[in-house]
DNA sequence: GTCTATACTCTGATAGAC
DNA sequence: GTCTATCAGAGTATAGAC
């Protein structure tokens, strides 16, 4: 990406990334075209390529920013807080992310469906490291009898799956629910109940 | 699709659909190319187009077959069976589907991410009808106090999300778990526990 | 039924005027 | 910095020989 030096450059770079997010998140890397991205950004194709040297560069700039945003909610899970509250807050933050940044969620999903050719290193590196770290926290909570004994990594997977579903499968969710629903409000309630029941240490297995 | 009349036609039609499943499920409709599909199928591009008149036709043939397979596990949920057992069996069938037909799962996911341009009618029609019907069964079970009171449609969403995640995000699941894991066996155990705890009617909310 | 050859469009990227 | 013009290659699809 061109290092922005003027207001125009700032504005156009941002417009391109916005447009790229629109198009890549809907059609994946190969299905997206520079024509379409340029049109959405309100620029000519050569002008777009003045700011980013290639299609790949636009995509990589988006991915680069994505992982951090995506993992922040998990990072915020506090090892010193109340276990059930911490997990429920994490679920809420992750669901808010799906609601407020559905395109980012879909971009991520598209990359995964393709086999994560441009993100594999990040998954096996920083992402795995963070998950392992938080899984340790969950294991401690389990050992202390403060949450029910469940597989900690699959617990994290379940949070990812359940929250991202509402962004990635939005069409299906809305189509099946029909009109007059607030999917995210209902999901918030449902997921709170679900994880409360799953993790409550006083329940029998 | 050409109506198969000979063994060769039978074989080639199937090879094309297999190859199309490979490529479309990974790259989505626009990202897939006939070149690639033909190569995977072991045919020349014009020969492929002898069996299917267009790229769209291959894709539609795949989608057409997909929805039925996809909804069968839900259809099998028996209104006269034991509620918790029925839901857990449904979860197991759906998870088996993810394990045995991951490409079908990804094809479906790709179509959803694109906004379901070729499946919207099916979602708002047959799919919604089936879900509404089964949601009624769940509501009855709740009213009879045989499962805990949860939003029936979001319960179904949660089963979809949790099971499909293991197929669609396979790279991530395997990358984070690291070697020496059997994701589906672990998921089976985790999900059984999760839904048992969620639905058990004797638990307090 | 299958292939070669090809028409024609789209796509990513570059050159060069302004 | 932005545009028009353009290139080379890939893409879908068709024609026609065998």
Protein traits:
homodimer, 2 domains, DNA-binding, 77% helix, Tetracycline Repressor, domain 2, mainly alpha, 205 residues, elongated, 10 helices, Arc Repressor Mutant, subunit A
Short summary of the structure?
Chain A is mainly α and 205 residues long. Chain A has helices at 7-31, 34-41, 45-51, 55-75, 83-100, 102-113, 120-143, 152-168, 170-177, 183-199. Helices cover 77% and strands 0% of the residues of chain A.
Tell me about the largest β-sheet of chain A: none
Alpha-carbon distance between the two ends of chain A: 53 Å
Number of strands of chain A: 0
Which chains have the largest interface?
A-B, 56 and 58 residues
The CATH homologous superfamily of the largest domain in chain A corresponds to Tetracycline Repressor, domain 2
What is the CATH topology assignment of the largest domain in chain A?
A: Tetracycline Repressor, domain 2
Sheet-strand content of chain A, in percent, reads: under 5%
Judged by helices, strands and strand pairing, the structural class of chain A is: mainly alpha
Name given to the CATH architecture of the largest domain in chain A: Orthogonal Bundle
Could you walk me through the main structural features you see in this protein, from its secondary elements to its overall organization?
The structure is a homodimer of 205-residue chains. Chain A is mostly helical and 205 residues long. Chain A folds into 2 domains: 1-53, Orthogonal Bundle (Arc Repressor Mutant, subunit A); 62-203, Tetracycline Repressor, domain 2. The first copy, chain A, is 77% helix and 0% strand. The first copy, chain A, has 10 helices and no strands. Chain A has helices at residues 7-31, 34-41, 45-51, 55-75, 83-100, 102-113, 120-143, 152-168, 170-177, 183-199. In chain A, helix 1 runs antiparallel to helix 2 (34-41) and helix 1 crosses helix 4. The longest helix of chain A is centred in the first third of the chain and has 25 residues, at 7-31. The first copy, chain A, is elongated and about 65 Å long. Chain A starts with 6 loop residues before the first helix and ends in a 6-residue tail after the last helix. The model of chain A has no long low-confidence stretch (mean pLDDT 96). At the A-B interface, helix 1, helix 6, helix 7, helix 8 and helix 9 of A face helix 1, helix 6, helix 7, helix 8 and helix 9 of B. Chain A binds a DNA duplex (18 and 18 nucleotides) through residues 6, 8-9, 12, 33-35, 43-47, 49-50, 53-55.
């Amino acid at each position: 990406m061109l290092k922005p030096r003027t207001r125009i450059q700032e504005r156009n770079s941002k417009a391109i990334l916005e447009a790229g997010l629109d198009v890549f998140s809907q059609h994946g890397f190969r299905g997206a075209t520079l024509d379409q991205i340029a049109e959405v950004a309100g620029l000519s194709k050569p002008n777009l390529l003045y700011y980013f040297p290639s299609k790949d560069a636009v995509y990589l700039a988006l991915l680069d920013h994505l992982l951090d945003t995506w993992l922040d909610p998990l990072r915020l899970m506090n090892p010193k807080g109340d276990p059930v509250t911490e997990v429920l807050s994490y679920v809420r933050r992750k669901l808010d992310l799906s609601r407020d940044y559905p395109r980012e969620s879909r971009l991520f999903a598209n990359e995964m469906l393709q086999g994560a050719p441009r993100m594999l290193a990040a998954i096996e590196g920083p992402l795995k490291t963070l998950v392992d770290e938080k899984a340790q926290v969950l294991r401690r909570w389990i050992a202390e009898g403060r949450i029910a004994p469940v597989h900690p990594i699959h617990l994290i997977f379940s949070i990812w799956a359940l929250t991202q579903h509402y962004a990635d499968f939005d069409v299906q969710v809305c189509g099946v629910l029909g009109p007059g629903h607030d999917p995210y409000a209902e999901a918030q309630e449902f997921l709170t109940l679900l994880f409360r029941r799953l993790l409550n240490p006083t329940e029998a297995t």
